[in-house]
Amino acid sequence: MTPMSCILRLLAIFVFLISTSACAPKAPAALTTSSSTPQPDSAGTPEHAGTPSSEPGGAIVLTVWLPPDFDSAGGNLAANMLQTRFIEFVEQHPQVRIDTRVKAEEGTGGLLDSLLGAQAAAPLSQPDLILLPHTQLQTAVQSRVIVPMSGLSTEHDSDDWYTFAQQMITVEEQVYGLPFAADALVVAYRPTAISDIPANWSALLEARRTLGLAVADPWAQFTLAELSALQEQAERSEFSFSEDELIQLFEFYTSSQERGIFPFWLTQYQTYEQSWQAFTEGRVPMVVAWTSKLFDTRNVDISGAPLPTQNGDYLTVIKGWVWAISTPDIERAELVAELAEFLSTPEFLAQWSAAAGMLPPRASSLAAWSPDAKQALASQIITDAVGLPPQETLQLWGQPLADAMVAILKQEQTPQEAMQAVMSAVANPE
Fold this sequence. Notes:
The strands form two sheets. Strands 1, 2, 3, 4, 7, 8, 9, 10, 11 and 12 form a ten-stranded mixed beta sheet that branches. The protein starts with a helix and ends with a helix. By secondary structure, it is of the alpha/beta class. It has 16 helices and twelve strands. It has two domains: 3-182 and 318-371, D-Maltodextrin-Binding Protein, domain 2 (3-Layer(aba) Sandwich), CATH 3.40.190; 183-317 and 384-427, D-Maltodextrin-Binding Protein, domain 2 (3-Layer(aba) Sandwich).
């Protein structure tokens, strides 16, 4: 059975479940779901003083924390696939019950904040498994709230994982977790308005078309991608940049401002949702966006292309999510690792990622997609993609780089002045 036929079959089941929801529960008793909304005064405070690891009847309760976009009770096709996968695991392990909890991806009361708070105040309330943004993994490792995979699984050793996926789960040469999903920056456009997207800086400058962008993005993710493309492949995972690399990019930004590619009014956009809205409203003919937005099934009239880079190489940055084991009970860790493996098989990732509009971290999973424009674009960008650096590095470089681009587009700084401001901010962080 092909991945697409599996998806259609699951869709039919989903429609049937909706039609019979008045007389059937949303999930069996072996699978429960709850959400947590962070309160202003709840920083670092766990939801409960403790969570039992087993029930009186002998059932083992595995607690799984998920970000909102991955809520298995979300009601869409991908959510139902994930919920079905949890149920299948329970069916294969009758002594297990899974309790999923949804927490904000970042900030107070979010995944990492709650994990650190649970460790300090109530270790029994730590989850067994957590779907963590890979940019938060290093902090979690250094805080000792997740455990390494060595001795628990060898699945991470498979050569089926893309290079960026292996980078996402590696901290100080130790592996923590298994990759699950990824999202990459690309250019979105409507073929009815633009025939093709320039592949390099020279062609982009010659085309003189505005490229929508979240210029004030505090993590400067587009700038990080463009700087990485200027480096040799071995240097790209370090996310450390020279004065010459900064000046080269900033000179391109200056020329782009002069030719209307990056006009000053783009500096009002801090998020990719804001720049995407400008695109949907027709204010820009093309926009830098995440593949998850482009691959949304509602955007059937929108196509995608790789980011234009200095020499036309296909390179982008990726944000990803990994299954990490956080149980403080070492005896449970093997069972939790088995669950993580079950959620990361090539076959399941192929079907789930296609439904979710996410990039799969495994080559065989992408190969199983339908051979369409989405698979073609994903195949172009994914091999040499670079995972975003840890949160600490994003905080160090992100805001200075964003401030530099804003200043250049507003004609407040020359490339030389912007470079000096960035290097000074990185050398002397607040």
